[in-house]
Design goal:
By secondary structure, the protein is mainly alpha-helical. The chain has one domain (2-86). It has 4 helices and no strands. It has helices spanning 2-28, 42-59, 67-76, 78-86. Helix 3 (67-76) packs across helix 4 (78-86). The longest helix is centred in the N-terminal third of the chain and has 27 residues, at 2-28. The protein is extended, with a radius of gyration of 17 Å. The termini are far apart.
Length: 87
């Protein structure tokens, strides 16, 4: 019984660790909480696009910046944006 509780607690903490880190990035870097998209599928489409962007930026290991720095670099450097989207 005790072993099951410990395993369950680890699973819950692991889930919330991932969940919190993703939501923090989406809110702080992409300003998701301030989004005014409310009608139709706009909110869902923008949320999916933001999650894709975070995933692509996290996957890139050539740039040693945080997600916000990578995002800004991709916005200003077309070659870096191409690299992030292709690799």
């Amino acid at each position: 019984m005790n072993n099951d509780i410990v395993r369950y607690a680890k699973a819950v903490r692991g889930h919330w660790g991932v969940e919190n880190s993703l939501h923090w990035v989406l809110d702080v870097v992409f300003g998701e909480d301030q989004s005014r998209a409310r009608s139709g599928y706009a909110a869902e489409n923008l949320a999916a696009t933001r999650r894709l962007a975070v995933s692509l930026l996290r996957r890139d290991k050539t740039c040693k910046r945080r997600i916000q720095g990578k995002w800004m670099r991709a916005a200003m450097d077309p070659d870096y944006l191409k690299h992030v989207l292709q690799d």
